[in-house]
Amino acid sequence: MLNEPNALDPLETAEAWRVQGRAVALATVIETWGSAPRPAGSHLVIDREGNFQGSVSGGCVEGAVIAEAADVIASGVPKILEFGVADETAWRVGLSCGGRIRIYVERIDG
Question: Any idea where the domains of the chain sit in the sequence?
Answer without folding.
Answer: 10-108
